[in-house]
Structures are given as C-alpha cells and as structure tokens.
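User: quick one, sequence for these tokens?
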C-alpha cells in the first residue's frame, strides 16, 4: 500500500485511504487510549458511557481493538539490523556535538588573537568537555527522577530506503525500541518524556510521510 498514511484528523483512526464515519463529538480520538486503559478514570467512564449511545464509536472500537492486537505482535519481533539504529544514534550525537560547538567555539575579533596552536588545543578541550557533558545523562542514579516516556508504533512501507528511514527517525527524534515484527511493525521511543499533545504532533507529522503506512501512539503518556 505505497503512499498511504494513517488517517486520523479527517477520517478517524484507520489505514489511509479508508473512508469512515467520524464521531460528531470527537470521542473516537480517545479510543486507542481507551483500549489500552491509559485514560484517567474519569475519561474511561466518559468514553464507556458514550459507547452505549454512539454506533460510530462502537464500530471504530472494533477496528482499534484489531489494530492493537496487531501491535501486540511485537512480542514476535525480529532483531533490527544493528547498523540502522547505531547509524541513527551516531548521526544524532554528531549533530548535537556540532550544534554545541557552533554555539561555544567562536573566534572573537580583538587586539590579542590566540595563536593557531592554542586555538586547536582549546577546541580539543571543548570537544572532550562536550562529550563528557553529553554522556552525563546516560548514567542513571538512584536519585534520578522517574518519568514515563511515550512510545509510538509505525509500519513503514516496504519500499522505503534505509537512508530515508534514518532521516525520518532523526526528524522526529525517535529511536527503535523494538521491531520489526513479522508484520513490519516498529515500536519507537524518545529520549525525553513527551506530553500527549507532543505525541499527537509527531503522529500527525509521520502521517504525511509517503513511506509510512501506519502510525499510532502506544503506551502511557
């Protein structure tokens, strides 16, 4: 199904290209979280009550449940080629280092200019400091604050090139957590906690990608 994306904003949750009725109250948008049981107790009760009166959402609930069942197939995933995830991580680290150095390493005009050798040594020290600073966050201590990190699931088109796949992951700041499953499902994670609104923005962005066939939030916000 090349070029089809996961439609939500105009046609409800479902595979791109499928025309489906939308709930006039927009409650269908909460169904993925309802199925996973990650809504608040009040929201769960509100959706449950709404389902008794809305045939559109009842039908949509069946589809969402089927799709969530497919997502659970990640338990049967095969290993991701290490080169893909490592290349993404290396490229992200390189980009982060360059942006930090651009902000710090600035040769300012003045009456006393540093010699070339001193500048080189200065840059080397900065690089060491930047790498040390960048890696500090990788160590977890008992005092580190705990925070749940959002995840999403994506099915990429079989024709997408590895280079473009890496670019997509970099653009949304994601890394592969698990996958692909035999159905081609990837679970993606993020380096920082995200709000539901931020997850929605990433989902909306991925829907515009021709190489993405399916995308949906996964796990607790």
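Assistant:
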């Amino acid at each position: 199904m090349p070029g089809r994306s996961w439609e939500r904003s105009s046609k409800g949750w479902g595979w791109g290209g499928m025309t489906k009725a939308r709930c006039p109250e927009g409650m269908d948008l909460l169904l993925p979280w309802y199925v996973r049981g990650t809504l608040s107790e009040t929201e769960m009760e509100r959706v449950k009550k709404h389902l008794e009166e809305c045939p559109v959402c009842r039908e949509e609930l069946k589809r969402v449940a089927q799709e969530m069942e497919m997502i659970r197939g990640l338990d049967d995933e095969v290993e991701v080629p290490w080169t893909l995830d490592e290349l993404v991580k290396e490229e992200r680290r390189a980009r982060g280092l360059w942006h930090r150095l651009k902000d710090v390493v600035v040769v300012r005009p003045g009456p006393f200019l540093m010699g070339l050798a001193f500048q080189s040594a200065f840059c080397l020290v900065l690089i060491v400091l930047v790498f040390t600073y960048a890696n500090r966050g990788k160590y977890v201590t008992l005092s580190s604050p705990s925070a749940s990190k959002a995840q999403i699931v994506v099915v990429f088109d079989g024709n997408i090139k590895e280079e473009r796949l890496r670019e997509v992951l970099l653009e949304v700041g994601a890394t592969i957590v698990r996958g692909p499953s035999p159905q081609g499902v990837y679970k993606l994670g993020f380096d920082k906690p995200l709000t539901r609104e931020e997850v929605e923005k990433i989902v909306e962005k991925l829907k515009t990608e021709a190489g993405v066939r399916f995308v949906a939030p996964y796990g607790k916000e």
